[in-house]
Amino acid sequence: MNTSDTEIELEPCFKLKGSRVTITILELYEYEYATFNDQLAETVRSAPDFFQQTPVILSLERCKDTGFIDFIELGELCREYGLVPVAIRGGSEEQLLSANVAGLPHLPVGAAKPPEAPKKQPEPAPEAPPIQNTVITTPVRSGQQVYAKGGDLIIIAPVSPGAEVLADGNIHIYGPLRGRALAGVSGNKNARIFCYSLEAELLSIGGIFTVDEDLKTSNWKKNIQAYLDGDKLVISAFS
After folding, report:
1. Cα–Cα distance between 164 and 169 in angstroms, integer?
2. Are 184 and 164 in contact (CB under 8 A)?
3. pTM over 0.90
Protein backbone atom coordinates (compact mmCIF):
# COMPACT_ATOMS: atom_id res chain seq x y z
CA MET A 1 0.00 0.00 0.00
CA ASN A 2 1.27 3.47 -0.91
CA THR A 3 1.73 5.54 2.26
CA SER A 4 0.97 8.70 0.33
CA ASP A 5 -2.59 7.44 -0.13
CA THR A 6 -3.00 6.71 3.56
CA GLU A 7 -4.35 9.36 5.89
CA ILE A 8 -2.29 9.63 9.04
CA GLU A 9 -4.55 10.52 11.96
CA LEU A 10 -2.71 12.63 14.52
CA GLU A 11 -3.81 12.67 18.12
CA PRO A 12 -4.80 16.17 19.30
CA CYS A 13 -2.15 17.92 21.37
CA PHE A 14 -4.61 20.22 23.19
CA LYS A 15 -8.26 20.66 24.05
CA LEU A 16 -10.24 23.81 24.86
CA LYS A 17 -12.55 23.32 27.83
CA GLY A 18 -14.89 25.68 29.63
CA SER A 19 -14.58 25.92 33.38
CA ARG A 20 -15.63 28.08 36.31
CA VAL A 21 -12.75 29.72 38.17
CA THR A 22 -12.73 32.31 40.93
CA ILE A 23 -10.88 35.48 40.02
CA THR A 24 -10.27 38.66 41.98
CA ILE A 25 -11.62 41.98 40.70
CA LEU A 26 -9.47 45.07 41.32
CA GLU A 27 -11.85 48.03 41.10
CA LEU A 28 -9.83 51.08 40.08
CA TYR A 29 -11.33 54.42 41.17
CA GLU A 30 -8.37 56.53 40.05
CA TYR A 31 -4.73 55.92 39.21
CA GLU A 32 -1.69 57.86 40.35
CA TYR A 33 1.51 55.85 40.66
CA ALA A 34 2.71 56.87 44.15
CA THR A 35 -0.73 56.70 45.79
CA PHE A 36 -1.60 53.37 44.16
CA ASN A 37 1.80 51.93 45.15
CA ASP A 38 1.44 53.00 48.79
CA GLN A 39 -2.12 51.67 49.16
CA LEU A 40 -1.35 48.38 47.39
CA ALA A 41 1.73 47.86 49.56
CA GLU A 42 -0.38 48.38 52.68
CA THR A 43 -3.03 45.92 51.45
CA VAL A 44 -0.39 43.29 50.70
CA ARG A 45 1.17 43.69 54.14
CA SER A 46 -2.20 42.88 55.73
CA ALA A 47 -2.53 39.54 53.86
CA PRO A 48 0.79 38.50 52.29
CA ASP A 49 -0.29 34.90 51.62
CA PHE A 50 -3.21 36.05 49.47
CA PHE A 51 -1.05 37.97 47.00
CA GLN A 52 0.97 35.18 45.40
CA GLN A 53 0.61 35.16 41.61
CA THR A 54 -3.08 36.06 42.00
CA PRO A 55 -4.82 36.75 38.66
CA VAL A 56 -6.95 39.89 38.68
CA ILE A 57 -9.33 41.70 36.35
CA LEU A 58 -8.90 45.48 36.38
CA SER A 59 -12.38 46.99 36.54
CA LEU A 60 -12.71 50.59 35.32
CA GLU A 61 -16.48 50.80 35.67
CA ARG A 62 -16.20 53.16 38.65
CA CYS A 63 -13.02 54.94 37.58
CA LYS A 64 -13.38 58.71 37.97
CA ASP A 65 -10.81 59.45 35.26
CA THR A 66 -11.62 58.50 31.66
CA GLY A 67 -8.25 59.74 30.37
CA PHE A 68 -5.03 57.89 29.62
CA ILE A 69 -3.81 55.19 32.04
CA ASP A 70 -0.41 53.59 31.50
CA PHE A 71 -1.37 49.91 31.81
CA ILE A 72 2.20 48.77 31.15
CA GLU A 73 3.32 50.67 34.24
CA LEU A 74 0.23 49.63 36.21
CA GLY A 75 0.71 45.97 35.25
CA GLU A 76 4.38 45.97 36.30
CA LEU A 77 3.45 47.55 39.63
CA CYS A 78 0.75 44.94 40.27
CA ARG A 79 3.13 42.08 39.47
CA GLU A 80 5.69 43.45 41.95
CA TYR A 81 3.13 42.75 44.67
CA GLY A 82 1.99 39.34 43.39
CA LEU A 83 -1.06 40.44 41.36
CA VAL A 84 -1.21 39.38 37.70
CA PRO A 85 -3.59 41.50 35.55
CA VAL A 86 -5.25 39.32 32.90
CA ALA A 87 -7.90 41.65 31.45
CA ILE A 88 -9.77 44.93 31.93
CA ARG A 89 -13.48 45.60 32.18
CA GLY A 90 -15.13 48.90 31.33
CA GLY A 91 -13.10 52.02 30.51
CA SER A 92 -12.98 54.72 27.83
CA GLU A 93 -11.75 54.23 24.25
CA GLU A 94 -8.41 55.78 25.19
CA GLN A 95 -8.05 53.39 28.11
CA LEU A 96 -9.01 50.41 25.97
CA LEU A 97 -6.30 51.34 23.46
CA SER A 98 -3.71 51.66 26.22
CA ALA A 99 -4.76 48.29 27.67
CA ASN A 100 -4.52 46.69 24.24
CA VAL A 101 -0.96 47.99 23.86
CA ALA A 102 -0.16 46.40 27.24
CA GLY A 103 -1.58 43.07 26.04
CA LEU A 104 -4.69 43.17 28.23
CA PRO A 105 -7.91 42.02 26.54
CA HIS A 106 -11.21 43.78 27.20
CA LEU A 107 -14.08 41.93 28.87
CA PRO A 108 -17.64 43.15 28.26
CA VAL A 109 -19.38 44.68 31.28
CA GLY A 110 -22.53 42.66 30.65
CA ALA A 111 -23.83 40.16 28.16
CA ALA A 112 -25.92 41.46 25.27
CA LYS A 113 -29.65 40.94 25.54
CA PRO A 114 -30.70 38.03 23.31
CA PRO A 115 -33.27 38.68 20.59
CA GLU A 116 -36.87 38.19 21.65
CA ALA A 117 -38.21 34.80 20.66
CA PRO A 118 -41.52 34.52 18.78
CA LYS A 119 -44.48 34.30 21.11
CA LYS A 120 -46.09 30.91 21.51
CA GLN A 121 -48.62 29.24 23.71
CA PRO A 122 -47.45 28.92 27.33
CA GLU A 123 -46.23 25.50 28.39
CA PRO A 124 -46.08 24.04 31.89
CA ALA A 125 -42.79 25.05 33.47
CA PRO A 126 -40.48 22.12 34.20
CA GLU A 127 -39.61 21.49 37.80
CA ALA A 128 -36.39 23.14 38.87
CA PRO A 129 -33.60 20.66 39.62
CA PRO A 130 -32.94 20.22 43.34
CA ILE A 131 -30.12 22.22 44.83
CA GLN A 132 -27.04 20.06 45.20
CA ASN A 133 -25.28 20.80 48.47
CA THR A 134 -21.78 19.47 49.13
CA VAL A 135 -20.91 17.91 52.49
CA ILE A 136 -17.26 17.44 53.53
CA THR A 137 -16.52 15.38 56.64
CA THR A 138 -12.71 15.39 56.58
CA PRO A 139 -10.32 18.30 57.28
CA VAL A 140 -9.53 20.58 54.34
CA ARG A 141 -5.73 20.70 54.26
CA SER A 142 -3.37 23.50 53.23
CA GLY A 143 -3.22 23.80 49.43
CA GLN A 144 -6.59 22.09 48.91
CA GLN A 145 -9.53 23.79 47.20
CA VAL A 146 -13.13 22.63 47.64
CA TYR A 147 -15.92 24.11 45.49
CA ALA A 148 -19.67 23.52 45.87
CA LYS A 149 -21.19 24.30 42.49
CA GLY A 150 -24.82 25.36 42.48
CA GLY A 151 -25.41 24.99 46.21
CA ASP A 152 -24.14 25.26 49.77
CA LEU A 153 -20.88 23.88 51.13
CA ILE A 154 -21.11 22.16 54.51
CA ILE A 155 -17.83 21.21 56.20
CA ILE A 156 -17.90 19.16 59.40
CA ALA A 157 -14.17 19.54 60.03
CA PRO A 158 -11.46 22.22 60.31
CA VAL A 159 -10.24 24.28 57.35
CA SER A 160 -6.45 24.69 57.57
CA PRO A 161 -4.37 27.80 56.74
CA GLY A 162 -3.65 27.92 53.01
CA ALA A 163 -6.84 26.00 52.13
CA GLU A 164 -9.63 27.55 50.06
CA VAL A 165 -13.34 26.70 50.21
CA LEU A 166 -15.83 28.12 47.72
CA ALA A 167 -19.56 27.83 47.09
CA ASP A 168 -22.18 29.32 44.81
CA GLY A 169 -24.42 29.39 47.89
CA ASN A 170 -23.70 29.55 51.62
CA ILE A 171 -20.71 28.08 53.46
CA HIS A 172 -21.20 26.31 56.82
CA ILE A 173 -18.07 25.26 58.72
CA TYR A 174 -18.60 23.24 61.89
CA GLY A 175 -15.07 23.81 63.10
CA PRO A 176 -12.31 26.45 62.94
CA LEU A 177 -11.89 28.35 59.68
CA ARG A 178 -8.21 29.18 59.25
CA GLY A 179 -8.02 29.37 55.44
CA ARG A 180 -10.03 31.32 52.88
CA ALA A 181 -13.81 31.09 52.43
CA LEU A 182 -15.59 32.54 49.38
CA ALA A 183 -19.39 32.28 49.27
CA GLY A 184 -21.69 33.40 46.46
CA VAL A 185 -18.86 33.08 43.94
CA SER A 186 -21.32 33.09 41.02
CA GLY A 187 -22.58 36.52 42.13
CA ASN A 188 -25.09 35.63 44.86
CA LYS A 189 -24.84 38.59 47.25
CA ASN A 190 -27.40 37.01 49.61
CA ALA A 191 -25.04 34.17 50.46
CA ARG A 192 -23.65 33.85 53.99
CA ILE A 193 -20.68 32.28 55.74
CA PHE A 194 -21.03 30.53 59.09
CA CYS A 195 -18.18 29.08 61.15
CA TYR A 196 -17.56 27.86 64.70
CA SER A 197 -14.25 29.70 65.11
CA LEU A 198 -13.23 32.67 62.97
CA GLU A 199 -9.48 32.43 62.30
CA ALA A 200 -9.68 33.06 58.56
CA GLU A 201 -7.13 34.50 56.15
CA LEU A 202 -9.91 35.90 53.97
CA LEU A 203 -13.71 36.02 53.77
CA SER A 204 -15.52 36.89 50.56
CA ILE A 205 -19.20 37.08 49.61
CA GLY A 206 -20.31 37.93 46.09
CA GLY A 207 -16.80 39.19 45.25
CA ILE A 208 -16.55 41.57 48.22
CA PHE A 209 -13.81 40.44 50.60
CA THR A 210 -11.94 41.29 53.77
CA VAL A 211 -8.62 39.90 55.04
CA ASP A 212 -7.32 38.62 58.37
CA GLU A 213 -5.97 41.95 59.64
CA ASP A 214 -9.49 43.39 59.49
CA LEU A 215 -11.02 40.16 60.81
CA LYS A 216 -9.01 40.20 64.06
CA THR A 217 -11.63 42.09 66.03
CA SER A 218 -13.88 41.20 68.95
CA ASN A 219 -15.30 38.31 66.90
CA TRP A 220 -11.92 36.60 66.37
CA LYS A 221 -12.01 32.89 67.34
CA LYS A 222 -15.76 33.07 67.97
CA ASN A 223 -18.85 31.62 66.30
CA ILE A 224 -19.76 34.06 63.53
CA GLN A 225 -21.91 34.65 60.53
CA ALA A 226 -20.82 36.90 57.66
CA TYR A 227 -23.15 38.60 55.20
CA LEU A 228 -23.39 41.64 52.94
CA ASP A 229 -25.12 44.88 53.84
CA GLY A 230 -24.97 46.71 50.53
CA ASP A 231 -21.29 46.70 49.56
CA LYS A 232 -20.11 46.16 53.15
CA LEU A 233 -19.18 42.74 54.50
CA VAL A 234 -20.63 42.44 58.03
CA ILE A 235 -19.43 39.93 60.62
CA SER A 236 -21.51 39.24 63.71
CA ALA A 237 -21.22 36.72 66.53
CA PHE A 238 -23.91 34.15 67.22
CA SER A 239 -24.35 31.52 69.89
Report:
1. 15
2. no
3. no
